């Protein structure tokens, strides 16, 4: 797929040529780790197909979902860490078979200086990610876990473009930062209410 078909705005022909010249593509399988916490960022990812989930982890291995990165988008955390030669504060995992175009961090600075639309792209991403992080904070602080779970399932359905979600209760609990038994209990309540249908390692949103 051409970059100008997936990005949120149309690149000039010159910047598309520069991205193709500077970047290198790599494919990741579903569940494969793309970036680990505390790793140095040497290149900025642009998702060309598939999707990525970005997680925050603690020292005990507990995780919580921050946001998803879809085709045409990049990770603003990687932008900031790469530009300041800092380590990653998040973990990125391929949600499905995903292809990424990596732009070396030194080339990112060059693009910022030469192409105003590239800087605009970064600011658009920053705005979107900031709003998503505010939603996470708001959900944790003010919403009950059953509301968070239902909203999470709706996002997964939207991302997969399918009402069927293939996830275990254990996977759900990790992404929501809670216990598996709590997720199982809430899903059973939601099934009794006619909101979902539960199967073996899958959940159908009704």
Name of the CATH homologous superfamily of the largest domain: Jelly Rolls
Derived from helix and strand composition plus strand pairing, the structural class reads: alpha+beta
- The first-level CATH class of the largest domain is given as Mainly Beta
Give me the count of strands.
10
End-to-end distance: 33 Å
Tally of structural domains: 2
CATH architecture annotation name of the largest domain: Sandwich
What does this structure look like?
Helix content is 47%, strand content 25%. It has two domains: 3-141, Jelly Rolls, CATH 2.60.120; 144-205, Arc Repressor Mutant, subunit A, CATH 1.10.10. Strands 2-6-4-5 form a four-stranded antiparallel beta sheet. It has a three-stranded antiparallel beta sheet with strand order 1-7-3. With 206 residues, the chain is of the alpha+beta class. α7 (169-176) crosses α8. The chain has eight helices and ten strands. A hairpin with a 2-residue loop joins β9 and β10.
């Amino acid at each position: 797929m051409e970059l100008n078909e997936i990005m949120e705005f149309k690149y000039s022909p010159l910047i598309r040529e520069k991205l193709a010249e500077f970047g290198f593509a790599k494919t990741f399988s579903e569940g494969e780790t793309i970036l680990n916490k505390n790793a140095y960022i040497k290149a900025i990812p642009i998702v060309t197909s598939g999707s990525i989930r970005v997680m925050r982890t603690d020292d005990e291995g507990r995780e919580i979902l921050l946001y998803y990165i879809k085709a045409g988008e990049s990770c603003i955390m990687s932008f900031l860490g790469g530009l300041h030669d800092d380590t990653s504060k998040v973990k990125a995992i391929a949600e499905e078979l995903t292809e990424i175009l990596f732009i070396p961090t030194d080339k990112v600075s060059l693009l910022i200086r030469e192409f105003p639309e590239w800087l605009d792209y970064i600011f658009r991403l920053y705005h979107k990610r900031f709003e998503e992080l505010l939603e996470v904070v708001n959900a944790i602080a003010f919403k009950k876990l059953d509301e968070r779970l239902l909203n999470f399932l709706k996002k997964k359905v939207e991302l997969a473009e399918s009402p069927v979600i293939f996830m275990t209760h254990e996977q759900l609990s990790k992404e929501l930062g809670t216990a598996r038994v709590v997720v199982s209990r809430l899903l059973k309540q939601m099934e009794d209410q006619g909101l979902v249908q539960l199967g073996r390692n899958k959940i159908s949103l009704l």
